[in-house]
Amino acid sequence: MNLPRTEKNLIDIKSMNLPDLEAFFLSIGESKGRALRVYKHIWQRGATTFDEMNDIAKSTRAKLNECAEITFLETISHKISDDGTQKFLWRIPQGGAIESVLIPDTNRDNNGRDRMTLCVSSQWGCAMKCSFCLTGDLGLKGQLKASQIANQPLQVSKTLPEGVRITNIVMMGMGEPLHNYKNLVIALRNMLHNQALDISHRKLTVSTVGLIPAIKKLSAELPVNLAISLNASNQEQRVEVMPITKRYGLDELIQCCKELNLPHGKRIAFEYVMMAGFNDSMEDAHRVYDLLCDLPAKVNLIPYNENPDRTIKRPSADQVKAFQHYLVSRGMNCTVRKTRGIDISAACGQLGKGVRPLSVKENL
Ligand code: SAH
Question: Which end of the chain is more exposed for a tag (fewer CB within 10 A), N or C?
């Protein structure tokens, strides 16, 4: 068995799925039933030590203490925006910091509950180098372990008031999730498992720049929602801002989407960051329609979040509305993403910017 390890070279129990945990327990002379109980302690009660697991025999706990570890992320800072958005900055032992963003929304979901969406990071930095995105400026500093990905929703949920829970998870934080495929899938399984974080597959979305082979693999493996960052209306324009699309071109991407075996009623979300004078014209809107009209697609327009490190401008609200109106008038599902958390650098494309050198003391 190839067991995941922590920095202390102990077994990283949170980087395992239940079947692997069960196999590990069998290998140390323990039962599958105990593995399940430990799994529930970790993911449902948020246990941080084996010793607090009262219903696990002392001898088992002693064994686990010797060879395994329950890791968690250390909080560097927790900021709350004027609009209620919260940004968590976590220290990771590889030497850096990553971010998660919690976005409360009072637009009720289908169950009449307020939505509470957590935006989760998958990498420390990002290798994709999309020209408009600040996370890309860091380059790829490191892959997150499965435990570090799934610890974000686990630990954020522990800060919420009694009765409030995370309803939606979007893999739209720092990094390209499909570029950390193996760890991502382990983490997603722990988010989905009904004995773990128990998030519905309808409420879990993986966003990607469009890594075609990994899109195919993921959609065959897990029933999560897929979001694709389109961000341009033709190949030439897309390559200009998303260099990775030289390798994974637009035609091939659209073809891949057509061939995905989506569960009935599922749609692929196409994110479209609108940049003034670049991809926001009505000709662009026409081309986006032509590209997507044969797909079970929905479009999410993201008006560009401006920042001092880029000269890119956000289009006017009227321009965004006209673009949306055109797509909707042709029968396409199209929404505009509300900007949230801009005052604390928690909005789309701003993550990584707030990650200052670790010697800087921040308010907890
Ligand atoms: N790498 C994945 C996950 C990141 S999601 C992906 O690209 O899909 C982050 C989303 O924010 C992407 O759709 C990206 O295109 C968008 N984005 C990046 N910078 C932005 C900015 N400054 N303003 C608005 N959206 C931005």
Answer: C
- Which superfamily does CATH assign the domain made up of 74-344 to? Aldolase class I (3.20.20.70)
* Torsional sign, CA 193, 198, 201, 206: negative
Contact 105, 119 (CB under 8 A): no
304 lines ligand 1 (CB under 6 A): yes
Give phi and psi for 164, each to the nearest 5.
-100, 135
φ, ψ at 11 (rounded to 5°): -75, 125
- At 270, give phi and psi (nearest 5°): -110, 115
Q: Is the CB of 231 under 6 A from ligand 1?
A: yes
Residue indicated by tokens 């801009």: 342
Asked if residue 34 lies in contact with residue 56, where contact means CB atoms within 8 angstroms, the answer is: yes
Fold classified for 11-69: DNA polymerase; domain 1 (1.10.150)
Minimal-distance CA residue to ligand 1 atom 4:
172
The pTM of the full predicted model, rounded to 2 decimals, is 0.95
Query: pLDDT tens digit string along 313-360?
Result: 999 999 999 999 999 999 999 999 988 888 888 888 777 754 443 333
Q: Can you tell me which residue has the tokens 């570890």?
A: 69
Domain parsing of the chain, residue ranges: 11-69, 74-344
Q: How far is CA 84 from the centre of its chain?
A: 20
| Ligand 1 atom closest to Cα of residue 170 | 5
